[in-house]
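Structure request: Phosphoribosylaminoimidazole-succinocarboxamide synthase, Petromyces alliaceus.
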Amino acid sequence: MSSSLSSGSFQTLDFLPDNTVVIQDKIYGKHTISEPVLAELLRSPAVLRLEGIGLHGQTDLLGITHTVTRLEHSIGASLLVRKVGASVADQVAGLLHDISHTVLSHDVDGALSKPGESFHEVQKSRYILTTELPQILIKYGFTDLKPFDEELYPLVEMPAPHLCADRLDYSLRDAVAFGKLTIEDARRVYDSLTAFPDPSSSRRLLVLQDIDLALTYARAYMECDRNVWCNPAHAVMSRKVGQLIGDLVKRGALQERVLWSRSDREFWELLKSKVDSQGLEIIKYIEKGPHAEDYLRLPRGTKIRTVDPDILLPKAEQPSPLSVLKPEFAEERQEYIRARQATSTLTNTDLQGALPLIARGKVRDLYDVDEKTLLFVATDRISAYDVIMENGIPEKGVLLTLCTKTWFKILTDAIPSLRTHFLTLDLPPQIPESLRPVLQNRSMQVRKLKILPIEAIVRGYITGSAWNEYKKSGTVHGIKVAEGLQESQAFPDGPIYTPSTKAEQGEHDENIHPDQAAAIVGEPYASTIASLSIQLYKAAHEYALTRGVIIADTKFEFGLDPETNEVVLADEVLTPDSSRFWPKDSYAVGRGQQSFDKQFLRDWLTSEGLKGKPGVRMTDEIAQKTSAKYREAWERITGGSHQI
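Returned structure:
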């Protein structure tokens, strides 16, 4: 016998006796799924569990927003890659990309995620092993289990502002559900979708073929961001529910496994039975719906979401972004980002007396936690040519902090004897609750050290000031190097150590010979720093190459442990502020390279005659493009798509 299931507002499933599954989707039409692996996955309890989980958490549950389920979204993502002719593996990856989402998933992520991580992603491997899914994939030849990693499938997951099946599906469903896009236009978007250059290329990309339709969709996407995904009242409700869940889990009153064994509705009733009287009052408050005061302010740091669809016009050899083909959209998008940016950058911190301020650097504000600990807060300030810009770079402080945390882990794994000053991304207990959303993910507690007054620069490739010196004298920092080098060439004898002085803020660092560094910090510290810096660079360079990134040069800072006098790696490491990152796939000797760092800003300052001048305010376009460079560096190097 056949059976049917409504998988959400837009979709029904019919399970037929011949093991095929017929999907009726109000946007994407009718699809008969006969591929055995897909048909069996669609019948599996782990996939069908998603029918009880909404995309919008408690606002879906309480009828405040339209219910779009994780199941119909997952099926929708699979149908989109199917539509463009993608492989069964791509379709499986689309179907399983949300498989580890919990009940009230964004609330739970907000409550249980550690700094720089997403709870459901961290738990994904562990959860999958409790299900029947690995056996199903192995049964049909997917012994490597790669479809569980959607990041390997660019049609399924692709960094914004490009299209991908995940982003396109949830936005089309929400845009229709909330009246931002007609269902007819949503169907036309689906019809216009194709893959470029083809669905099996390693560089495959989802593109639209109708420029006017793409403009309609991109505007609807911004409307969803403004009024649906970033609704302040919904954010307030989510945070309150998350706090209740987090408290119960920490107290042991709620077991984590429950988060994957119930529907949103079942879990909501369980939550009400577990909280204390104060928690129950909060739930009753939430159940009455959004309150006027909840709409007043969107929490700082809320992600700005826009798309810039790639368009493949008739007879065009390559797709072009909508913003290039429609300059009016480029300005419209930038204006929207500007409006949202006003509350999304942090250029100064004020801890309201919770901790004493020790210093403000070019980027970081330093606070005293206790006799052994400092709090480093990375703001969104940016400096170039030793001058701090008047405005900030969106998300910069968060990206620097998460990038540094990731590199500390990579480097200590590669060099087990390495000591760093990093302690934790957790905020000290003295920080008021009201400031925590602003400071989280951009702050780290570190050991107090006696900082050594040199910058430990390692260069693997000849570029920048080193190239300029080499052209004049055949040296780099006074060190004789091989003759006949071309710009951007790797040093034939391996990376070289080229230290500089550590100048006061507003002053210029001075390039010095390693012998001068030894005179400044003394031995054995100078030799240890030189040797360790080369080790660190080599380990980082080797890792980055596997991520498609070349680290041309970088800067380390070191301090001494006040108790043992050991040399300790300090400050930030291998960020776009302290390093020069090049894309490996476009690298070529004999010219300057594209970069994922603030070279973009430096070039703009130079071209505008503003190099080294104080009081410069970046244009909004430069600030946003620089932010995109920093984010691309983070995503390329770490593989992360952390929702900042």
